[in-house]
Each structure stands twice: as C-alpha cells, then as structure tokens.
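Intended use. Records like the one below are meant for learning the mapping from a protein sequence to its folded structure. Do not use them to infer anything beyond what is encoded.
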Amino acid sequence: MAEFCADTLDVFGQDGYNSMEVLFQVSNAADLAINIGFNDDSLDASGTLPAELATATWTTNAATFVGLVYDVDATNDDWHCMWVDGNSDASEALADLRMNGAAPIASKWIMARVAIQDRGSGKGVRATFTVSCDGKSYEKEFNTSITRSTALCYYIGFENRAGTAHSLYIKYIRTEQSIAD
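Structure written out for the chain above:
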C-alpha cells in the first residue's frame, strides 16, 4: 500500500473550488486498487483505502471521501466515482457511478482529476470526476451529499491486491484551491 496525502485538513467545499489532478502510470494494472480525490484523514495510516469495491459492494473506510476508485476486485474493472459523507455512502446506483470502459492500462499514462465546487448553504458540494487514458476521456458530475464545511485533504492511494511487484510512476500532481477571504 502506498498513500500520498496532505499533512493538513485545509480543503473545504465552502471555499469555492478545489481540484486535484495526477498524471501517472502503473507497470501492472491487473492487481491494483486505486483511490484519488479528497479524504478527511491527513497522514492516513490506516492501511486501507478510503473506498473499496468488491464485486458490486462498497466498503468505505473513511468518514468522508470524494474521489475516483478503481478496484480489481469489482465486478467491472472500470473507474467509479464515489463519495461518502459522515459515514453515509453515495446513494446513486452503481451503474451510474461507473465510467464504463475506463480502466487503467499498464504502461500508459493515466490522467485522473477530481474537482469539488460549492453549491451554497445547505447543499452538498458538486463533484466532477475525469479520467483520460489511451486517447479516451471520461467525465461525470454529481451533486453530492458532502457537507461543504467538512475539512478534507488531497489523497492518492494505491493498494497491491496480490504478491506481484508493481511500479508506479507519477509525472505530476496538480492542485487548485480557492482561498477563503
């Protein structure tokens, strides 16, 4: 398991607009689970990803997370959009969260981007999920239940689901953040 996360919970939906984007490549995509997005636990040392998908069942290990999830244990080995807020998982149908046909390809550059935007008081944040790989791009947008005042940090997690060795190459990580007045 490899995790990259901020040391401070300093991202809030109510601040306007926040995004994180990573361009990466894996040597073997057959035995991986990947989470990319925003998590509510800085310096996470739990040993589990914030969200996991086994067959068609979500297991969320974070109280709040919004991001892209790829899990080789899923029935469909595609990227999925996912969020959990206050330990309550997204209520959308799995088929609506799935980016049909979008899966990591070994030794190909993969761009993954998650953006959250404030929708105003009393409303959850809007999340836009984007994945590009091998000349194809996929995007989905949802009005989530994520409380706009929840403190989050940037998060990237990779978990090896087998005993085979993997190489992970990150070309860049880009973040955007509105700063509160």
